Amino acid sequence: MELSLSSEDAAFRDEVRAFIAENYPQEMRVPNPETDLTKEQMLLWHRILHKKGWIAPLWPKEHGGPGWSITQRFLFEQETSRAGTLPPLAFSVTMVGPVIYTFGNEAQKQKFLPRILSGEDWWCQGYSEPGSGSDLASVRTKAVRDGDHYVVNGHKTWTTLAQHADWIFCLVRTDLAAKPQAGISFLLIDMKSPGVTVRPIITIDGSHEVNDVFLEDVRVPIENLIGEENKGWTYAKFLLGNERTSMAGIGRSTRYLNRLKQIVRAEIDDDDPSFGEFIKDIARVELDVLALEATELRVVAQMSRGIDPGPAASLFKIRGTEIFQRITDLTHQAIGNYGLAIREHPVSGNHFMPGPDYGHTASEKYLNSRKLSIYGGSNEIQRNIIAKAVLGL
Amino acid sequence: MDIQLTEEQELLRSSVQRLLRDRYDFEARRKIVATDEGWSRAHWKAFVELGLCAAPFKESAGGLGGGPLTTMIIMKEFGRHLVVEPFFETVVLAGGLIEDIGSQAQREEFLPDIMAGESIWALAWAEGRSRYDFNNIATTAQRQGENYVLSGTKAAVIGAPWADKLIVSARTSGGPRDRSGVSLFVVDRHSANLHLQGFRTIDGRRAAEVALMNVEVPASQLLGTEGKGVAALEACRDRAIAALCAEAIGAMTELNAATLEYSKTRKQFGTTLGSFQVLQHRMVDMFIALEEAVSLTQHLNLCIAAGEPNGSRLASGAKTKVGYAARFIAEQAIQLHGGMGMSDELNVGHYFKRISAINVQFGDPTYHLMRYAQQDESNVSSEAVRRTASSRS
Question: Tell me, which fold does domain B231-392 have in CATH?
Answer without folding.
Answer: Butyryl-CoA Dehydrogenase, subunit A; domain 3 (1.20.140)
